[in-house]
Amino acid sequence: MPPQNSSKKAVREKSLQQLIEDVGLYPAEAYDFIQQGLSHTVQKLHGPVTKPKQNRHVTGQDLCHGLRDYALQQWGMLAGAVLERWNVTTTLDFGRIVFALVDFGHMQKQDEDTLEDFRNVYDFRSAFEAEYRIPVTP
Fold first, then answer.
1. CA 35-13-42 angle, 5° bins
2. CA atoms within 13 Å, Cβ hemisphere of 131
3. Angstrom distance (rounded) from CA 1 to CA 45
4. Domains of the chain, residue spans
5. Which residue spans within 75-138 are E strands per DSSP?
6. Which of these, 108, 116, 113, lies nearest to 38 by C-alpha position?
7. What pTM was estimated for this model as a whole?
8. What percent helix, strand, coil does the chain show, rounded to 5?
9. What is the full DSSP assignment across 51-78?
């Protein structure tokens, strides 16, 4: 996902609009959400950049949990409804979007990263409805 690896073959980057048209399952907002959620997750797990070439990779499972956290921060109790409107109803949908972004040159992955890393990480209904608690500030 985020690591830069110069030994990888260069992937010809296509526009986000072309990616959306080619894949056809998810709207532009879903791809933007994944990219912003990745930044959120990397920052949460690794903190600020202190060494530019430091490996800041996150696993598919880490990203799924970070995306849940990010969605709840953004939309609170509406997070599940927003994602469902974008046809994102499982953690595997997160993975499909990530790998489409990788295939089109908008993200990078490590050799061990697979779509299966995103399968059944958590149940959407319980993650975005039953487990959500309104934050209480003192």
1. 25
2. 13
3. 14
4. 31-48+55-130
5. none
6. 108
7. 0.79
8. 55, 0, 45
9. STT------HHHHHHHHHHHHHHHHGGG
Instruction: Confirm if 90 and 124 have CB atoms less than 8 A apart.
Output: yes
Q: How many CB atoms lie within 10 A of CB 74?
A: 14
Cα–Cα nearest to 6, from 59, 42, 55, 45 = 55
- The beta-carbon contacts of 7-15 under 8 Å, at least 24 apart in sequence, are 8/108, 11/102, 11/103, 11/104, 11/105, 12/105, 13/104, 13/105, 13/106, 14/104, 14/105
Closest Cα partner for 60 from 8, 97, 5?
A: 97
- How does residue 135 score in pLDDT terms, banded at 50, 70 and 90? low
Taking the CA atoms of residue 86, residue 80, residue 70 and residue 112 in that order, the dihedral angle to the nearest 10 degrees is: -70
Q: What is the mean pLDDT of residues 92-115?
A: 92
Task: Say which amino acid occupies 92.
Answer: L
Written as one letter, the residue type at 30 is: A
Rg of the chain in Å (alpha carbons):
15
